[in-house]
Amino acid sequence: MPAQPNRRMPLSCEPCRVRKIRCPQTTSSPGGPCGTCLRRGVPADQCVFLRDIYGRRPSHPRTPGAAAVVDESREATNSELLERIRKLESLVVGNTHSGTPGTRPEGSTTSSPLVVLSIAVMSLDESSPLLRDLGKSSLASRSISTLTSRYRAAAFRCLEADHYLWRQNLRTLQALILLIYGINHSHGQSWSLLGLTRNVALSLGCHVDPEHFNLDTVEAEQRRRCWAGLTMLYLIQNTCLGSIDPAPIQSSVRLPLDVDDDELTASSTTVNLQMARNRNTPSQMSYLLYKFRLYDVCSRICSQLFSENGLPSYDAITAFDNEISAQQDEWNIKYVSDTRHSSLPTHHAVHLNILFGYSHQLFLLLHRPVLVQARTASGSNHRYPSSQLLSSRSRCLQSASALLGIHRLLHENDDFRPYQWYNRGLGSFHAFHAAVFIAYICGTTTDLDADYVASLRRELESSVTTFDAMASTGMSRICEKAAPILRHLCANSNLFSLKNLQPVQEIPQTLHPLTPPLSGNGCSEGQAYSPTMLHTTSQQLEAFLETLQPSQWLSPAAITWNDWDMIMDGYPNSAGLFST
User: Fold this and answer.
1) Are residues 301 and 450 both part of a single domain?
2) Domain named Zn(2)-C6 fungal-type: which ranges (predicted)?
3) For residues 355 and 287, what is the distance between their CA atoms, to the nearest angstrom?
4) Are the beta carbons of 435 and 463 closer than 8 angstroms?
5) Residue 553 near residue 364, CB atoms below 8 Å
6) In the structure, how many helices (H) and strands (E) does the chain have?
7) Which residues touch 467 (CB under 8 Å, ≥6 apart)?
8) HEC string of 37-75?
């Protein structure tokens, strides 16, 4: 507003007046800052004198016509301001009288977009120019790490500005859950942050079904989704850490609805949502719901494997096997049944492959005790008969082959490039588990068909090629560790495959020297062959694989790579095994 005639103008410039420091009251040069601002590095456009600003304003004579125009424009402006004030008041009143227990009016500082950015950066391709422009590094892996840490740190600063440690709301909970999800895929478990987040959810009452509160459909589903996501993270981390919290919180919260986001409105009715839920096509929530059920199965399987009561009964193993198979059938009905008329969207196709990959991982964990016990126990101590052993071995070989195929498909299909962050981490870990299992079976079984062993050998070779290609990008630490191990396992399996061609016989108690393979069939050049060393290390490898705890196959963070290095150091160099 214009200055009044009798108003005194400050003599100092605005920066000096605000900081209450001495101002020379004159500019150092025409149009430039004063001497103090010049020394302090204040930009020239910020060093202004109010007397100059108001002195430059032209004075317009107030004619009756001009006054009428000014009054009309002022009234229009006032009406717009009043309308905006009413809208703001309605928002404030709505937040103040919300029936959500524990919610508070949220500040302008929000961390959710920054958390989403920290996760989205991981989906960028290593050749993306965004990584070079934003990360300022020639290495894509370093740029992703830098950007992820930067956005994650900014998100935590926003949470601190919102005082999330003592003032919680649903936005805070959503941001924390996404943070944990991103950390799990980049650094491993975040048990301490997960415990804090669970307590935040409890303080908000998310463990109570929203139907007990006066909430609209949107907020009720938000709370159910938060609790489902948090419970899923808690289940898998608690299982990977050895069930350190054996008493989970009892909850009456129903699972979220299997509907898309745009189907949820404040005026949505239960009948309409139920009709949408009964459709045979996947929604945006289908993947989360199916993954939630798989993690629940994994938790119950691990309670059997880690039990102090000994080996699980085969009836229990069969029950879990049937439950996983039933879920696979349900996925096929939901995702594949409607693809006759239109192709499955890319994100649904990736989700379906991830679900099947995780189910095959559970099959390997579930049947592992049967196969290991058959090798380590004497004939009189076998708990599982040969028919059950053959059934479990067949199931595991099928699952291992399927896992390697999924890993290769996600790597080679260009449409799945935005999802390489999964394949570089958990997907590669599951594929490594599958490859190790195939190598172990080929090395310890004598009654497999020769053609079938050859096909398994080709699958191992193909998997090594995939692991090498992913390791060469520098984006997957798991592939960098697993690729040389798999090369050694393939070399060892090649020796054992010669034994598989012999007639079926009992496994000998002592290993006799085997004919070394020709160099053209895979033996590396330039190193003397030592049968004693090779057979000793073969026995060591078998014993090592049999004594591996099943907990090491639950998460990439649980595996001890140093143990693998110690075992593999005793093998002949097989670096040129698949060289061309």
Assistant:
1) yes
2) 12-49
3) 8
4) yes
5) yes
6) 21, 0
7) 428, 431, 432, 479, 482, 483, 486
8) HHHHCCCCCCCCCHHHHHHHCCCCCCCHHHHHHHHHHHH
Lowest mean pLDDT among 95-99, 169-173, 318-322, 421-425: 95-99
Give me 220's structure tokens: 């009720």
31-50 pLDDT, tens digit per residue, is 678 888 888 878 777 788 87
Q: Looking at the structure, tell me whether residues 336 and 288 fall in a common domain.
A: yes
- Same structural domain, 558 and 482: yes
Please tell me the distance from the alpha carbon of residue 116 to that of residue 155, in angstroms, as a whole number: 9
Residues 308 and 233 in one domain: no
Distance CA 386, CA 530 (A): 35
Domain that holds residue 44: 14-56
Structure confidence at residue 491 (pLDDT)? 72
Find out whether 331 and 393 touch, Cβ atoms under 8 Å: no
Mean pLDDT, residues 110-135 taken together: 81
Q: Is the dihedral of CA 395, 401, 402, 404 positive or negative?
A: positive
Q: What does the angle CA 99 – CA 105 – CA 107 come to, to the nearest 5 degrees? A: 155
Q: Is the dihedral of CA 536, 561, 473, 185 positive or negative?
A: positive
